[in-house]
Amino acid sequence: MGIDSSRTAFERTRRSLGGGVSSGLRAAMRPVPLFVERARGAHLWDLDGDRYLDYVMAWGPLVHGHSHPRVVDSVARVMTSMQVVGMGHRLEYEAAEAVLASVPGAERLVWTNTGTEAVQVALRFARAATGRHRIVKLTKAYHGWHDSVYASMGPDNTDEAAVPASLGQSPNAYADLIISQFNDIDGIAALLDRAEERRIAAVLIDPIMSNAGVRAPAPGFLETLRSLCDRHGVVLIFDEVITGFRIARGGAAERFGVRPDLSVFGKAIAGGFTQSAVVGRADIIDLVEHGLAHAGTFNGNPVALAAVQAAMELSAAPGVFEDLDDLGAAFEQAITDVLTSAGSPGSLRRVGSLLQFVPRDQATSLHGTDGIWAEIAAGMLEAGAVFMPSGKIFLSTAHTLADIQETAALLERVLQQISARSA
Ligand SMILES: *Cc1c(COP(=O)(O)O)cnc(C)c1O
């Protein structure tokens, strides 16, 4: 098992591609970003043909694994007839109907390409629907990389005024944010009490803080948020880019039984292809017929929608999410046992098939968790299992109990190596 081919490829890539990776966070992978030749089910093969068990799953989309035959077949059938046509086509409504049938309370949608883009469209809808412009966003919550929401990403960025998270952001773009905290219903209630005066259009929330530690909402948090938004005429937006078609067929709205006004889907909606959507109340989405601009050359292209259609069929199969939950529980149990017998350097948090390694002595972050997790992830990569730098762990229907046992055995060995090194 060698990562030398990836090391060499990364050096070469950096000479043509800025940063050597196509999405910034991938550079945080230790000891080096993996370069892949082929991927199927729960496995990846690198440029040398070495095989790895994959717990990154493309950073979220692959709830049904790599190269799922249903997705590949569906795309292949359409791809030879048309690719992008800029016209109406059958899949536009068939795929839309399939998404609406999956999401509780969903009445209408618009197609977009990425999660980042869909969040921007959702904010425009919320502003148009309320005639207000400010947005409540939570510390550390990731809603894409755009200037208007990529702010206050550090654990200490708890001030109401947003702080930028990247070089090069216009202060005008994030000035509309008001920052609050996950599970702090009193803090949010105080803001919303003055929603009219402060011109608050929406609360934008990832219902489980997928990219900031995987935390379940406190009992009553989402329900209270729902009634506060109703009382103050504020649009409640669920960012379901990770949770959608993963923690339940209908995402967080189904799992926690709370219906937002709008939700944003991406990642898993297309089983590995590029597609996203803003889904929600018909009276809000229908503003596209009354002056709300929404456009995009590749919106709703047949290839992506063929993938959406296949992904929706896969997630509608009976028992899929119960089985994924069981698999998540088995992973949690097996890995927790190994961690405990190694002196508990960390623990796991889990919602369904989404898990987070939580180091005993440190905070987790979007970019990467230094210290023990960096050592574990580097050791696991060299042993043949790929994990995200942030310690987030994605399972899929392609993972098996045997994969989990293999992973537990690898982890046991890697933890022994780490403690031998530090002894
Ligand atoms: C990935 C992600 C986004 C952004 O989606 P992209 O397709 O990467 O632009 C937005 N919100 C959440 C919760 C995400 O995990």
Notes on the protein architecture:
This protein is an alpha/beta fold. The protein contains 13 helices and 14 strands. Helix 2 (69-79) packs antiparallel against helix 10 (302-316), helix 3 packs parallel to helix 10 (302-316) and helix 12 (372-383) crosses helix 13 (401-422). It starts with a helix and ends with a helix. The model has no long low-confidence stretch (mean pLDDT 96). It has a seven-stranded mixed β-sheet, sandwiched between helices. It has a four-stranded mixed β-sheet with strand order 1-2-3-13. Helices cover 37% and strands 15% of the residues. The protein binds pyridoxal-5'-phosphate.
Report the sheet with the most strands, covering strand number, pairing sense and barrel closure. 7 strands, mixed
What is the CA-CA span between the terminal residues?
Answer: 26 Å
Mean pLDDT: 96
Helix count, DSSP H or I runs of 4 or more residues: 13
What structural category characterises the helix and strand content?
Answer: alpha/beta
Output the radius of gyration. 21 Å
Order of helices and strands: HEEEHHEHEHEHEHEHEEHHHEEHEEH
Strand order of the largest sheet: 4-10-9-8-7-5-6
List the ligand species: pyridoxal-5'-phosphate
